[in-house]
Write a structure and sequence with these properties.
six-stranded mixed beta sheet; two-stranded antiparallel sheet; 52% helix; disordered N terminus
Length: 618
């Protein structure tokens, strides 16, 4: 954790000037009376240890504007390294400054609380550390009294209704957090918090061998780590403070800033039901659990029909774009904020279904849904995430199930060819945006407003499609590793060319099976059995390593046959494994070739590339 340099003052404390090591050096006393008169005089800073901060009688509540828990195991490890360096330095001051908390009083409920505008991550980590220490006192050293003291002093507060949590996080984080406070070794459905809790426990298990070790750790963390608590009063907007303090934060995502702006506008506009907007926003976040939120919101915004945006949006563009929508465009379009956030939630659910390969068109049969999801899986396999923009654009504008499927196939072919020849993604996104929104400068009408959206999409993608000659050349010489994209290419070749038509699946490409990708010439130059290939392979190690990963040296093969074929020479693999395979590609190889060398790899690569150029066409 990086210390924050600067000076802080209270009536009771000396100013502490923080240097780069995180040490606090006393300076001249400074009183609030010396502060510049005016609106800043109501800001009250106070230097306090972590123990004093968490012994207060108020509950600390993290507001909904805050980003989700962002600390990772590495952040905690760095914190402990800094604490160790401080503890082991004989010249260290009595306390070490670790940052500031911004709080705002809130006495609107039955429990006296402070809203934690800034300082969530430090608060979360400290609370989890205290919970672990209490658990160790009780279970490792059989000292329930010490455990009870920590829990009552630092983890809970006394109220008329019984003891309540000292700290309450945002709605999405708090259930897992409270579970870990009660049982630090529990497993929750919050992956990031689980990892952080596990790292804390492992660190403490290594450090604590005796009860005295634990007491020393408790003192070091709670009594010798200090923060400056700044009470900003009620005259300042926490949303504006959050924006100004975190606008360039290392872990603050554009979606965090979007959330802050939406909630700020909802809070300031009396005509907006703040609670409904907040709840709907949380539904939006829940819909995107497990997905890259920034990418999702970028794609949703570009594909949108409620508030059309016909320009490419980068990660850096996302917040200014949404801010402009919320601040200006909604009013101009006669759309209220709640309606917009509800639309975002609906769009997020659609994005999640597409990205998770679990999309169900409202009018699709099970067979149609399965076929659509097969092509969505293919898009994931070839790394064609931007294709989701066009597919969502069609979904938002009411395409039929068959149209959605046909557009997915076009996007799959288009994306695979472009990635094979390594074309740039931004041009691809621009093509999708022209199809969704049209382009007056290029005389292009929106594809989904035309009588045949599929034909319009095909026509719109053709100018950005690499030529057959370029694709053929790159396909033949490409370095095909053993990954999923290679298996995809071989599967489509198998289905569309080698497999007899009577045995083919009704749709493009065929289902992805469980075949292995077999290297005819062994992939490992130093394989034990490779010496048997030396009789007819005259190549350097560098030449061989390039050629063995060309498409012509690959075939689909059953797993059991692949294991038996191993690194054996071609003649030993041909009849017992290739010729008897259920994959037509392998039997074709065995029937056409009686021997194998690098010249045949080159020949077959060019043949397969020619076949591919006739398959992956729009």
């Amino acid at each position: 954790m990086e210390p924050i340099g600067g000076s802080f003052a209270t009536r009771e404390h000396q100013v502490c000037v923080v240097d780069g090591s995180g040490r606090i050096e006393p300076s001249k006393p400074y009183h609030m009376a010396q502060a510049t008169p005016g609106r800043l005089t109501n800001i009250v800073p106070e230097t306090t240890t972590l123990a004093e901060q968490f012994q207060r009688s108020e509950q600390l509540e993290v507001p909904d504007l805050q980003r989700r828990v962002a600390w990772m195991a590495d952040n905690f490890d760095q914190l402990m390294d800094d604490i160790d360096a401080y503890a082991n330095d004989p010249n260290s001051p009595d306390v070490r400054y670790i940052g500031s908390f911004l709080v705002q009083p809130d006495n609107s409920g039955p429990v006296s609380r402070q809203i934690l505008v800034d300082g969530q991550q430090r608060t979360l980590v400290t609370q989890l550390m205290v919970a672990n220490m209490a658990d160790m006192y009780e279970k490792k050293f059989s000292d329930p009294a010490a455990a009870k003291f920590l829990r009552e002093e630092y983890l809970t507060i006394a109220t008329r209704g019984g003891r309540k949590p000292k700290v309450v996080l945002t709605e999405l984080d708090d259930p897992a957090f409270q579970k870990l406070i009660q049982n630090p070794t529990a497993t929750t459905n919050h992956e990031a918090m689980n990892k952080l809790a596990n790292e804390i426990r492992e660190s403490f298990d290594e450090r604590v061998q005796t009860v005295n070790d634990l007491r020393s750790l408790e003192e070091l963390i709670l009594e010798r780590q200090a923060v400056v608590v700044i009470n900003i009063g009620n005259q300042f907007s926490p949303y504006r403070i959050f924006e100004e303090r975190n606008g360039r934060g290392a872990q603050l995502t554009p979606v965090d800033r979007v959330k802050n702006r939406i909630l700020e506008v909802a809070d300031a506009d009396l005509s907006v039901n703040f609670e409904l907007v907040k709840d709907e926003w949380f539904e939006f976040r829940r819909a995107l659990e497990g997905h890259n939120e920034t990418r999702a919101l970028r794609y949703i915004t570009m594909a949108g029909n409620l508030v059309p945006v016909n320009k490419k949006i980068s990660g850096g563009d996302l917040y200014p774009t949404i801010k402009h929508i919320v601040d200006e465009r909604l009013d101009n379009l006669g759309i209220d904020l709640l309606e917009y956030v509800e639309w975002l939630t609906m769009a997020a659910e659609t994005y999640s279904d597409i990205a998770s390969v679990n999309y169900q068109h409202p009018k699709a049969s099970k067979t149609q849904a399965d076929e659509i999801n097969r092509h969505l899986e293919a898009l994931d396999t070839i790394g064609a995430k931007p294709g989701r923009i066009l597919l969502m654009g069609g979904e938002f504008r009411g395409v039929s199930p068959s149209e959605f499927k046909d557009i997915a196939i076009l996007v799959e072919k288009f994306s695979f060819v472009r990635r094979t020849v390594e074309r740039r993604v931004p041009q691809e996104i621009q093509a999708y945006l022209r199809l969704i929104h049209g382009s007056s400068s290029k005389g292009i009408s929106p594809a989904f407003s035309q009588s045949s959206p599929v034909k319009a999409v095909k026509k719109g993608l053709e100018p950005e499609m690499p030529s057959k000659e370029e694709f053929r050349r790159e396909f033949a010489r490409k370095d095909w590793n053993k990954g999923a994209k290679t298996a995809y290419a071989l599967t489509v070749l198998e289905h569309e060319h080698y497999l007899p038509k009577a045995k083919r699946h009704s749709g493009f490409g065929g289902p992805m099976g469980r075949a292995d990708v077999e290297h005819i010439i062994p992939q490992r130059y130093d394989a034990k059995k490779y010496a048997k290939w030396h009789n007819y392979l005259t190549a350097t190690k560098e030449e061989l390593e390039l050629d063995v990963r060309r498409i012509g040296n690959l075939t689909l093969l059953e797993n059991r046959k692949n294991l038996k074929a191993s690194d054996n020479p071609f003649e030993q693999k041909r009849d017992p494994h290739y010729l008897t395979s259920n994959y037509a590609m392998a039997t074709d190889l065995a029937s056409r070739y009686s021997s194998w060398d690098l010249k045949k790899v080159d020949k077959r690569s060019k043949e397969m590339a020619k076949i591919a150029a006739d398959i992956w066409v729009l």
